[in-house]
C-alpha cells in the first residue's frame, strides 16, 4: 500500500476505535486492552488479502471506476454503468478522483461498513441480553467472522453495506422507531437487491404494530432520495428503477451458483434440464415461507414477543436464499450476520451460526479457489439444519397466550 492508502486504512481503524469508545468499551479498564487487541487483529487479518484481485473486480468494478475516471467522474453518473444501483456507483465515482489504487478504495469502503455491521449486530445483542461483555464479544466476532473478512477485504464485495443497514433497520424496529426502521430498510435495498431477503419481515412487524403502516411512506421517499443526485445529473429514472430486474435477468443461466441452496441437491448435469420449471418450485417455497411467518404471527398474535420477531428476521434471511433459484455463494451474508447475533443473544442456538457459516464458506471456497472442497449439497444440509434450529427458537420464543400482547394499540 502507498502512504495515502495506509493513512485511509488507519483512519478506518481509528473510526473503529471511536465506535468502541462510544459504546463504552474504551472507557473501562477491563475492556480497553481486549478491545484494542481484537480490533487490531481484525484489521491485521485483512491486510494480507488486500492485494487479491478477483474476477469480479477485474471484469466489473475496476472497469466501472475507470469509466468514471475517463468520463468526468460524477458527471458520468448520467450514463448507465454496470448493473449496481446508483448509491454504490456514487462511491465508485468518488474513487475516480482519489490518487489511490481503486482496488484498495473499494475494499476500504466494505471494511468501513464491516464496522457499521459489527455495531448493528452488537446493538441487537445488547438489546436482548443487556450484557456489555456479550455486546463487545459480538462486535469482535463480526469483525473476525470468516465470511465478513473474505467478502470485503479479499473479494472486494459490498454485502456488508446492505447487511449493515438491514440489521440496523431490525434494531430500530425492535426499539419502536418505526420511521427509522423504514429508512434503514430503504437504504439497504438501495445498495443491494438481496435486501429482499429481509424486507418481508415488515409484514410481520406491521401485523404486530411494532412498526406503523402509516409510516410506510418513508421507505419509498428514502429510496427515491438515494437516486435523486444521479437523476438530476441526467440519469434516466426508469433505468434506475429497473436495475435490479436487469440483475435478475442476467443471473438466470444456472439454478445454483456455488450456493448452499436447495438447488445444490440437484445432481450435476441436470441443472439445464430442470431450468425451465424447477425454478418455480423454489420461488413457491420462498413465498410459502413468507406467508407462513405472517400466518404464524396472526395465529399466535397474543403470544408474539420481541424474540419471536428477531427469530422471524433470522429465518427469512436464511430461508429465502435457501429456497430461491439463481443464488450466489454470497447471498447468505445477511444470514451469517443475524445468526451470529442469535448465537450471542441465545447461546444455546450457537450451532445455527456454525452451520450457516459452514454452508457459506463452502461456496466462498469454491469461488475463490476454483474447486469444491466438499460437494455443495453438504452445505445445503447444514443450512437446512440451521433452518430447523431457527424454527425451534421461534417456537420457544412465544409467551403463554394468557399474557397480554405488548404490541396491541
Q: Would you kindly provide a written description of the structure presented here, covering whatever features stand out?
A:
The chain is built from 18 helices and two strands. It is an all-alpha fold. The protein folds into two domains: 1-234, no CATH class; 251-409, no CATH class. The radius of gyration is 21 Å and the shape is globular. The N and C termini lie far apart (56 Å).
Topology:
Elements lengths: L2 H20 L6 H16 L10 H16 L15 H10 L6 H28 L2 H13 L1 H9 L4 H16 L3 H14 L9 H7 L10 H15 L4 H5 L1 H7 L6 E2 L13 H29 L6 H18 L3 E2 L4 H13 L4 H20 L6 H22 L12
Parallel strand pairs: 1-2
- Main pleated sheet: 2 strands, parallel
Give the terminus-to-terminus CA distance. 56 Å
What is the succession of H and E elements? HHHHHHHHHHHHHEHHEHHH
Q: Please tell me what the overall shape is.
A: globular
Overall pLDDT: 93
Helix content: 55-70%
SS strand fraction: under 5%
Enumerate how many helices there are, as a single number. 18
Q: Segments where pLDDT lies below 50 for 5+ residues?
A: 402-409
